[in-house]
Design brief:
single chain, 207 residues, alpha/beta, Rossmann fold, globular, FMN, Flavoprotein_WrbA-like, NAD(P)H dehydrogenase (quinone) activity, FMN binding, FMN_Rdtase-like_dom
Length: 207
């Protein structure tokens, strides 16, 4: 039986685990706010081999997203590692299948944010976040970054931007999410949850 509690969809793609850990921290921030839940979902990898088929359920981590997860969410947190300054292909592939939601205005006035991880400090964190918000704006979503009232933005020595949470994974993608990066993920999750509840109420009053 499905819960009637509103939820934030935390949708991500992760290869080395850093983006998945950020997603979990984002979910922790969301679920620290009363009255809303986090729903963790991922996307299958894409393959140049036409015969390659992903299992219906991944061996570990979050289950694969379905369109209804996105259709019925109250907010969206979108996470991806950087690929040449842009989101990874598997996440873009899923977003390219959301035309039916766009045609029906299913995501209009719902808040959204993005988060990312890179191997190098100047490896495209900000361009990735900015390009990830483009399809969200086409869907009519309300983008929520991280304000400078979050003091970790001023003291971080690695990831963290006003455009969204980010992480420096290192050349071998084995650097853990540090305290400040984690704090910014949690803070962004909290902000998104609060906005989701407020905009839910606004949409109800408009009906």
């Amino acid at each position: 039986m499905m819960s009637d509690t509103p939820y934030v969809l935390v949708l991500y793609y992760s290869r080395s685990g850093a983006t998945a850990e950020m997603a979990r921290q984002m979910a922790a921030g969301i679920e620290s706010i009363a009255g809303i839940e986090a729903r963790l979902r991922t996307v299958p990898p894409v393959s140049p081999t036409c015969e390659a088929v992903a299992p219906d359920i991944p061996e570990e981590g979050a289950v694969y997203v379905e369109l209804d997860d996105l259709r019925n969410c109250s907010a969206l947190a979108l996470g991806s590692p950087t690929r040449f300054g842009n989101m990874a292909a598997p996440l873009k592939y899923f977003l390219d299948t959301t035309s039916s939601l766009w045609m029906n205005g299913a995501l209009v006035d719902k808040p959204a944010c993005a988060f990312t991880s890179t191997s190098s400090l100047h490896g495209g964190q900000e361009s990735t976040l900015l390009t990830m918000l483009v399809p969200l704006l086409h869907h009519g979503m309300v983008y929520a970054g991280i304000p400078y009232s979050e003091t970790a933005l001023l003291s971080t020595q690695a990831g963290g931007t006003p455009y969204g949470a980010s992480h420096l994974a290192g050349a071998r993608s084995d650097r853990p999410v540090d305290e400040q990066e984690r704090a910014l993920c949690v803070a962004q999750g909290k902000r998104l949850a609060k906005l989701a509840l407020a905009l839910n109420n606004m949409r109800r009053e408009a009906l």
